[in-house]
Specification:
Chain lengths: ~110, ~110
């Protein structure tokens, strides 16, 4: 089955700096890669996703890149703000909406004001 | 739409008791997923349904766990008998295959088995 590894497990940055979280996956058949943000005591919420036919996607301060050959994808947050502090999970599946997600282990991001 | 609705939000039970968690997916969604979240194992899939039919239950840890989806608007996850190691947050999620949308998560049920 699919295996998703995520690094780093914790990340502390100063407000205004950029943050990068990286994930690798094992199953070359995976073609959907969402990123979820989870605040303490809350549900995971999708912040951005990318499909395998696209190499990069951007939404305001958030961007995701995908390298299918190397089987890795990354989340980039620019101009970080204290409200970006949360746990971020990457995930992979073979078909958006139709397949269960395999999650990475999570990255706790702390943005220092 | 109110989103995916789970009940109860919190459950504290004694070891050996039966526990039933409930989920109402978003109307029109044809996939339903049950996930468990713990510090040690992270977010892991337990089982998922398509059009009320279980598709993959390989993540169900033991026979003590069972899940049903009697209709398109309701699913249950039952643990019988419960054990302290079952303590976790259980999330239900749903998605719509017609537009390949993402999975939307419920608020979760925090289960504590003492």
């Amino acid at each position: 089955g699919e295996n998703v590894e995520q690094h780093p497990s914790t990340l502390s940055v100063q407000e205004g700096d950029s943050a990068v979280i990286k994930c690798t996956y094992s199953d070359s058949a995976s073609n959907y890669f969402p990123w979820y943000k989870q605040e303490l005591g809350k549900r995971p919420q999708l912040i951005i996703d990318i499909r395998s036919n696209v190499g990069e996607k951007k939404d305001q301060r958030i961007a995701v890149t995908l390298n299918k050959t190397a089987k890795h994808f990354s989340l980039h947050i620019t101009e970080t703000q204290p409200e970006d502090s949360a746990v971020y999970f990457c995930a992979a599946s073979k078909r958006a909406g139709r397949r269960a997600l395999t999650f990475g282990s999570g990255t706790r991001l702390q943005v220092q004001p | 739409d109110a989103g995916v609705i789970q009940s109860p939000r919190h459950e504290v039970t004694e070891m050996g008791q039966e526990v039933t968690l409930r989920c109402k997916p978003i109307s029109g969604h044809d996939y339903l997923f049950w996930y468990r979240q713990t510090m040690m194992r992270g977010l892991e899939l337990l089982i998922y349904f398509n059009n009320n039919v279980p598709i993959d239950d390989s993540g169900m840890p033991e026979d003590r766990f069972s899940a049903k989806m009697p209709n398109a608007s309701f699913s249950t996850l039952k643990i019988q008998p419960s054990e302290p190691r079952d303590s976790a947050v259980y999330f239900c999620a749903s998605s719509f295959s017609g537009r390949d949308t993402e999975a939307f998560f419920g608020q979760g049920t925090r289960l504590t088995v003492v």
